[in-house]
Description:
CATH topology of the largest domain: Rossmann fold
Largest sheet: 9 strands, mixed
Number of helices: 17
CATH superfamily of the largest domain: Vaccinia Virus protein VP39
Amino acid sequence: MAAVVDDLLAAGPLTCAEQRRVAHAEGLNGENRAELGQYFTPAPIARLLAGMFEPPEGRVRVLDPGAGVGSLSAALVERAASEGWRCSLDLTAVEIDDRLLGGLESTLSDCLEVIPSAQGRVEHSDFLTWAATQAEPEIFQHDRQQFDLVIMNPPYGKLRTASASHERLRRLGVRTSNLYSAFVWLASRLLAPGGQLVAITPRSFCNGSYFRSFRQALLDDCSLRDIHVFESRDTAFRDGAVLQENIVFRIVRSPQRSPVQISVSSGSGLDEARRHHVSADSVVHPTDPRLFIRIPEDRSSVELAEQMGGLPLTLAGLGVTASTGRVVDFRSREHLRDDCEGDTIPLIYPAHLRQGRVKWPGESSSKPRAIAVSPETEGMFLPSGEYVLIKRFSSKEECRRVVAAVLEPADLPSEVVAMENHVNVLHVSNRGMERDLAWGLAVYLNSTVVDLFFRQFNGHTQVNAAHLESLRYPDVQSLQALGAKARSVEFGQAALDTLLERHVPALKGLR
């Protein structure tokens, strides 16, 4: 029997599914792909996902939402056969796309040849509609399906708020406008007690206010057990031109907060991953109201998170607020001016933040430098003062995710100023702050340790006000002492890091 299984695996349900995947992907154009958010799972990544489950026993009900050509089901069946799992598999593959049904049915048929005792069926349906029906909390619905294993690569795209699916999900308490989080949220509801879900998704759900309800739902009902990250953001789905940073995670429907295994690979799915275990508190800190999911990729990252978490203050504790700039330029075109002349005031863009200072008007640029004063714009202004400005998006050329600069009154020829929406502003009740505090905050935010810590929970180049509010900060006296020295020091990375270690000893040696 073992020899027969080996022969079948050599031809392989996954090998055949991979051929179907490639053939279908070649026929897709960008419009087709965007319509359903289809990014099919390459065979090495499918094996990676299938390899994350703890082997189950007994009758095992498996769900593959948005199954495509069935690559994930095939990878799971291949693993079960090669390892001799002591279970019977009952596969349910849900797929909406008519063009994929023939390939999906063929893949399930291949799977049943490898494990004849298995069962498989295709549900031709929109998964959100199908799963919402399964999850309806109706009193007399005793036959609601539950699953022991869910393996998924959900679609990437927006969930239209005017759609019937969105309204139905809202009634179920599923509050999201993103397809991938809606898929995972509903699938997690269909897990049996002790059931496992493995998914590959964008990393974006790990932080920010947009996905907080999603994180809350997952962490209320399930326990994170594994997180896999890729060193290269464009390798896992290279043939699909996906540049979104992805992670693979495994959750278990259980209230037990267990250690989390973190693994790191190049992204191809073919190389051996580096692995280590961290406490659940190192991933989601129990006192964090935002429930950010941090991913410390090595032991030094765990130490860094512990030290950063031990700093005494938040921005609110400092009396400081983070806001985005009030000028949305494409909505204010009629008020924008190339030069600051007449009844106009300076307008600060991210390009004006250079080497810790605001360089305005800056070199020649296609961006306007000023905004007209009018009743329509006066609510967009701030009075002159000391502010800390942070770029909302860092460029590929910048070595840090967080890029901060100090704006002083002498930097501008005006008693008021406006910031464009791609700039974050640290202020005190919509006014400037004490100068040494501003400089101390800028040095801290530009430090290597903040950059390293920021990357643990933020997998992209966007820096939002919520991210800045989630950080811990040194005490006021340390920041003021740091700022007093920083103004007389050349704004280089080594010098800033040395200053921070000198005035905040708790962070010494962490970079």
